[in-house]
What we know:
Strand order of the largest sheet: 1-2-3-4-5
Number of strands: 5
Shape: globular
Low-confidence stretches: none
Largest sheet: 5 strands, mixed
Amino acid sequence: MSDPEIRDDRAAGRLVAVSGGEVVGRIEYFVLESPERALVPVHTIVEPAHEGKGIAGSLARELYALAGREHSAVASLCPYVTKWAERHPDEASAADEDLLGAAKDWLRAHPGRF
């Protein structure tokens, strides 16, 4: 399998990995505007037939690259993305606690979103 194409579907709040014309994985996220602009990943999902192929890592790497291009922080509420960032500190800077708190507050205020 070749590396999947990673696409940002901002309207749906998804960063998707596409291979062979099908979505094989995704990170579901939202954009937080205050106290600063941040991408907030909530879930990482890889289709069972595609697990173990590095798709989740590719999605996490692209999420941080996307945030960098947009001059945004990343405030991860996704356990996978958080662990990935801990293993790749050269590519993923840690979010400050105030930003993480604001992301958690936003998520609680929008219970049907995820």
